């Protein structure tokens, strides 16, 4: 609990001090309303009521309303700023993580952490701030009860304590249920993502649709039942706590007069104080579920942040000026895909080769040969577990990681096309139009105000558009992963016979994964991979294209 409160206070940057102060004033002023009300009632019974009591009541009421509004207004702002700060910080740290970390983690857990978990932290923060006022009011009411009647004060402590003890007893069991519900929520997000990403495949098979729909329904049902059980038990305990308080009122109203000399006015004041205290007491008890859920979510967010801090490839302050090169060399480079089952791991390497500036290198090989992994190692998206990557004989240091990656423009087979031209400021409209025309897509899309008018194109056209965006960035090395596979025959020929040679004439280096053996003569060299290793490198006289 203290860990959660400390985290919330830290993320709100101390704003909670002003907010708590306002809510404390609201709590004290609301308690003072009870005292003024009871005093006024006693004076009314004695027919001694004067104008000072209503005036005091009105003044305290204005103070209560003003302090409550101030506290609530700043509470909402501070809590939303906290959520924004944490979400933006995590999103930024994700950009500096290793690609393999994100591939292993998956999207479902990340969506849960950046969405539902942050929402639960936000709810806990609001509950904590609202609970501050409720706590003040409970303390004030207890002190007032002690002043009215010590026996009633101790009876109230006993009943309130029993209710709180019941809550905490249930809470210990509920935390495990909440944690399990969260894992089911993550699995549900993954399954829903499959519904969108695999829509075409699901559409083609009724049996697959039924199985997938049934799986989503089972996850949703399991999540629902876990959540319903948790919420029902918490509400049951809340009802039990209310029952204790109603029994206390019954004792005060029906039993106490038989054994006490308290006047009717005093009993009325005691009952009024207990009724006045019930709502803030329920607020405090009902905060326990919010804190329990938030603690599970906080543990998840802190684990993510710790992993991102420990896994960071570099910091945002690391140099990002592109390196220049004449040769780029792999020296005994190894990479391994780890698996929970040792024999299911996959090794790539040893890789030993040198890429020369201003050459065209084709990479070929069967499925599973390690071609895409090689490209990710080449572009710095994967880090070798052994060996080194060198520029002009100098090993690339960890601190140079971003500067190294700034050399590359890549269109991977699983590329993503952004609608906004991130990182490109004010591209020349004429150059853009000429490039899109050259690629045969100027009639399909255009750039306006830093955004693409549409990315709803065929796969081949989307690849051309992705290349166009990369070409505007004007990098030294262009990487293509099966770029021509989705192109029509005419553009495929254009890609090999005109686009790649033109890039070379412009001083660019090209590495392309391809299966088009018809066009191998375009390359200066063809690198063949097999079982994660370089099996053969064939030299060509570039520019000799056979028909």
Key phrases:
six-stranded mixed sheet; ABC transporter transmembrane region fold; Rossmann fold; alpha/beta; 14 helices; disordered C terminus; 547 residues
Structural notes for this entry:
- With 547 residues, the protein is of the alpha/beta class.
- The chain folds into 2 domains: 310 residues, ABC transporter transmembrane region fold; 213 residues, P-loop containing nucleotide triphosphate hydrolases (Rossmann fold).
- Helix content is 63%, strand content 12%.
- It has 14 helices and 12 strands.
- A 6-stranded mixed beta sheet has the order 6-9-10-3-11-12, with helices on both faces. A 4-stranded antiparallel beta sheet has the order 2-1-4-5, covered by helices on one side.
- Strand 9, helix 14 and strand 10 form a beta-alpha-beta unit.
- The relative contact order is 0.08.
- The C terminus is likely disordered.
């Amino acid at each position: 609990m203290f860990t959660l409160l400390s985290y919330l206070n830290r993320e709100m940057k101390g704003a909670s001090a002003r907010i708590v102060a306002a809510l404390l004033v609201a709590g004290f002023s609301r308690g003072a309303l009870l005292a003024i009300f009871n005093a006024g009632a006693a004076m009314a019974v004695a027919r001694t009521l004067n104008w000072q009591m209503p005036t005091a009541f009105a003044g305290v009421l204005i103070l209560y309303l003003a302090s409550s509004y101030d506290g609530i207004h700043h509470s909402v702002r501070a809590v939303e700023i906290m959520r924004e700060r944490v979400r933006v910080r995590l999103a930024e740290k994700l950009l500096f993580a290793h690609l393999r970390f994100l591939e292993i983690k998956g999207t479902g857990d990340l969506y849960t952490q950046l969405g539902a978990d942050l929402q639960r932290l936000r709810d806990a923060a609001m509950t904590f701030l609202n609970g501050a006022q409720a706590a003040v009011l409970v303390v004030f009411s207890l002190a007032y009860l002690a002043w009215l009647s010590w026996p009633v004060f101790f009876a109230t402590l006993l009943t309130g304590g029993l209710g709180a003890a019941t809550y905490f007893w249930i809470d210990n069991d509920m935390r495990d249920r909440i944690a399990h519900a969260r894992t089911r929520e993550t699995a549900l997000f993954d399954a829903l993502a499959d519904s969108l990403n695999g829509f075409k495949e699901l559409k083609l098979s009724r049996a697959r649709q039924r199985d997938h729909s049934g799986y989503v329904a089972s996850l949703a049902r399991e999540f629902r039942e876990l959540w319903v059980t948790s919420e029902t038990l918490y509400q049951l305990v809340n009802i039990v706590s209310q029952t204790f308080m109603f029994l206390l009122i019954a004792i005060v109203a029906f039993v106490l007069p038989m054994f006490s000399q308290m006047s009717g006015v005093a009993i009325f004041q005691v009952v009024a104080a207990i009724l006045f205290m019930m709502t803030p007491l329920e607020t405090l008890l009902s905060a326990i579920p919010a804190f329990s859920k938030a603690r599970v979510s906080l543990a998840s967010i802190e684990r993510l942040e710790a992993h991102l801090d420990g896994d960071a490839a570099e910091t945002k302050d690391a140099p990002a000026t592109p390196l220049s090169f004449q040769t780029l060399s792999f020296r005994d480079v190894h990479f391994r895909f780890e698996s929970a089952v040792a024999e299911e791991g996959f090794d790539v390497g040893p890789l030993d080769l040198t890429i020369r500036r201003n050459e065209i290198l084709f990479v070929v090989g069967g499925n599973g040969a390690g071609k895409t992994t090689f490209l990710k190692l080449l572009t710095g998206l994967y880090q070798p577990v052994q060996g080194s990557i060198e520029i002009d004989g100098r090993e690339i240091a960890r601190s140079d990681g971003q500067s190294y990656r700034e050399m590359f423009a890549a269109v991977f087979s699983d590329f993503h096309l952004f609608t906004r031209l991130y990182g490109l400021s004010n591209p020349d409209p004429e150059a853009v139009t000429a490039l899109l025309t050259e690629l045969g897509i100027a009639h399909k899309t255009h750039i306006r105000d830093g955004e693409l008018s549409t990315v709803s194109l065929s796969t081949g056209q989307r690849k051309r558009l992705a290349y166009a965006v990369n070409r505007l960035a004007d990098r030294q090395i262009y990487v293509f992963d099966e770029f021509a596979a989705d192109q029509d025959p005419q553009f495929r020929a254009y890609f090999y016979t005109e686009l790649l040679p033109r890039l070379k004439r412009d001083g660019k280096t090209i590495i392309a994964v391809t299966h088009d053996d018809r066009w191998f003569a375009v390359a200066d060299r063809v690198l063949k991979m097999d079982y994660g290793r370089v099996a053969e490198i064939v030299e060509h006289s570039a520019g000799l294209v056979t028909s």
